[in-house]
Amino acid sequence: MNFAHRYPLNVPGKFYVDDQCTDCDLCRECAPNNIRRDDRYGQSYVYKQPESDEEVAAIMEGVEGCPTEAVRNDGDQHDWDREPIIDWAASLGRFDYEASFETAAPVIPYEQTLEEERLAMEKWKAENEKP
Question: Taking residues 111-127, what's their average pLDDT?
């Protein structure tokens, strides 16, 4: 996906987890010192950026092994406080979760997020339809 889909509990830095996380546990197994699970919603997030070569290698194993490419390593190219983030509270509300997150970043209106999802699905269908 993109940086706007980062989970709000990620700490700023190079590594983060986005909304493509399927809670498979691979990244947490690879980098338990850096990635945790938000048990409320079954979502992984980076709670501590790596500080050693060993931690970088562990989290990179999660980046490279993630089946949905939800573990990302381009967070150092973004402004965590100024670049918008999707409205996670509204998004999780679809599943009857009452969620609230504090974030310094501006929140993208939920309707815009839905439109983005719709367009992505149309693109995927067009690319994967058999002639």
Answer: 82
pTM for this entry: 0.83
- Measured distance CA(21)–CA(11) in Å, rounded: 16
pLDDT at residue 128 greater than cutoff 60: yes
First-to-last alpha carbon distance for the chain, in angstroms, is 27
Alpha-carbon span 126 to 64, nearest angstrom? 27
User: Which one-letter DSSP state was computed for residue 24?
Assistant: -
Six-digit token string for 41: 């919603």
Identify how many contiguous H helices and E strands the chain contains and give both numbers.
4, 6
Give CA separation, 119 vs 67, 115, 128, in Å. Answer: 22, 6, 14
- C-alpha distances out from residue 53 to 21, 26, 107, Å: 25, 19, 34
Q: Select the more confidently predicted residue: 38 or 115.
A: 38
